[in-house]
Amino acid sequence: MNWVGQHFEVSLGNPGHGGFCVARHEGRVVFVRHGLPGEVVRVMVTEDRGGSFCRADAVDIVEGSPDRVPALCPVSGPGGAGCCDFSHATLEAQRAIKAAVVGEQLARLAGIDRDIEVEDVPGTGDGTGWRTRLRLAVDDDGRAGVHGYRSARVIADLRCPQPVSGAIEGIAERQFKPGAELEVAVDSEGVRHVIVLAPAHVSKTGQRSPGRRGAMARRTASSSTRSRRIVVGSGRAVQRVGDRFWGVDAGGFWQAHRGAAQAYSDCVAEWADAQPGNIAWDLYSGAGVFAARLAEQVGVAGSVVAIESSRPAVRDGNAALADLPQVRFVPERVETALAGIESSPSTVVLDPPRAGAGRDVVAAVALRRPPRIVHIGCDPAAFARDVALYKEQGYTLERLRAFDAFPLTHHVEVIGLLTR
User: Would you say residue 91 lies in a domain?
Assistant: First the structure.
């Protein structure tokens, strides 16, 4: 059974995690992009690996939703890029969809029923012009672009509405080495930085295989050490949160939404509630944005242990927080560093990668019995799985906030306060 290329009409049901709505056709589940809940659409099947489901694009809207608007992104429609899953919906509808997904993941994976509200992040405006960091691919003709949805194909069209004004100015007119990538950042001072990464060396398996093995080979190559050339700016971005500044690698990690770092920092500071003299941990700390707020709370009589595997981020964090002797950076993986820390914290803050913290880290944190844990998740499913692990360790999800830090997309940031 292979439906790729087939067209048929379906009614769209609930949104699913990943930027689609769920439909059914002839006994199979169809994951449909570019539609909205309640719509009747004509779809074209784009991917079918057999089994109980396939993937499709809504190519014709038969009965539209009142939440539908003209798509803001001309790059991500049917057959296009994966950048803007919901640019065809009002911001209110986008947030309702994200709230439904977060609630469904929590209920299914953690057994928690909770009414979710997805909040605006300051600086969002109409949902465009919020992204300060992006990574672009270069096609075989040397043109910069974005990847097609679930594809290594490069679409040389830079009209995505997410980047802040001026971020990609002039890039479409330039030629780059085929296979290279561009890291683009606009920092808190409004300075733009563009770095060209040399083409990644992909194994022969990755070169000849379009499937899973090839995709894994290409991801591995992309994350390996590559030569870099700064073509705009200094390559060192100045980032501000509150009254403190960080100097960081323009290609390193920083929150993409221009208002996100401040919004998350304020939430973490409120919920951490560390007291003078306390011990606090900041796990997956990056350059120490949360560690700085924790340090303010515990004072010079307390201590903050910040664990981060990226040595450049640790270097930048040490420089930015040099005036806070109560902060100690540990340049190791969280999974291995926790065993060597003897102190028991009153507060733990975790901001793990998209896959979540996982069983071993949650168990290691819970073993120290901190009264308060503030857990940040950029993937609702991974966040819910981690919350379920905390429940097994006797913790309760006391508070939860969800932020629309990625407007026009299906992504959402979730922060939870867990107590025991």
Answer: no
The last residue of one of the domains, among 68, 97, 117, is 68
278 with 340, same domain: the answer is yes
Residue 90 lies inside a defined structural domain of this protein: no
Closest by CA position to 69, among listed 126, 19, 7: 126
- Shared domain check, 263 and 227: no
Q: How many domains does the chain have?
A: 3
CB 158 within 8 A of CB 138: no
Rounded-to-integer distance, Cα 128 and Cα 73, Å: 9
Question: Nearest to residue 181, comparing CAs of 148, 141, 248, 228?
Answer: 228
Average pLDDT over residues 348-369: 97
Per DSSP, the residues of 100-113 read HHHHHHIIIII---
231-240 pLDDT tens trace: 999 999 999 9
- Of the chain, the end-to-end C-alpha distance in Å amounts to 51
Report the predicted TM-score, pTM, of the whole model to 2 decimal places: 0.93
Residue 226 and residue 300 in one domain: no
Same domain, 265 and 318: yes
In a domain, 110, yes or no: no
Residue 383 in domain? yes
Which one of 54, 160, 267, 378 is the catalytic residue?
378
CB atoms within 10 A of CB 322: 9
**Among this protein's residues, is 267 annotated catalytic?**
no
Q: Encode burial over 234-260: b for 16+ CB neighbours within 10 A, e otherwise.
A: ebbbebebeebebebbbbbbbbbbbbb
What is the pLDDT of the chain when averaged over all its residues?
95
Examine the pLDDT at 150 and tell me if it is beyond 90: yes
Q: Which residue reads 């920083």 in tokens? A: 254
Residues 338 and 198 in one domain: no
- Whole-number Å distance between alpha carbons of 145 and 69: 25
At which residue do the structure tokens 């379009």 appear?
Answer: 210
